[in-house]
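>> received
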Amino acid sequence: MSNEWDEYAENWEQNPATAVFAEQAFNELNELVSLKGLKVLDFGCGTGLLTQKLSPLVKEVVALDSSEQMIEQLDAKELANVEPVVDSLSRGLVAYHPAFRGQFDLIVASSVCGFLDDFSETAKVVSSLLNEGGLFVHWDWQVESDSADYGLSLKGAKKALKSASFSSVDVSSPFNVTTEQGEQTVLMGVAQK
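>> returned
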């Protein structure tokens, strides 16, 4: 299953901005929730920069990405409590794949949701996968308008999360990352079931 992200996989971690993004996201997550013993879904895990940080602290991680090449990079890290899955998040995947038989305590998505065709619909699938009280935390490039090619606006992220019937939703701009395009603001959405 080849996709447009395959071509970035081999050199993904050589871009300093990707490591900074993952580190900052992990720091925010660590301040937000105790990770010890959690069952986690890393949705759109890429090469596993965030998965690698989560792995020593959590019970298990299902690492999902639609790019086979990204998952191969993650596999090379040989993380014992990580189950890699090459696919897109959909109701069909959830219905048939054994990794999705149980609910998750935490679902994270780092620079993923702003690239989705329909974040509102995906947020509903995410909500269905969480235990009561479970958290969905995502980080995306913040944009002014949701008509941009990538990224999410604060208003758009909040609207999508609320449409998924989470019990509480908070959207903020916790940090910036310097990229080849200059300084970019990162949006963080936190939704509790």
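>> Residues 75 and 142 are 30 Å apart (CA to CA).
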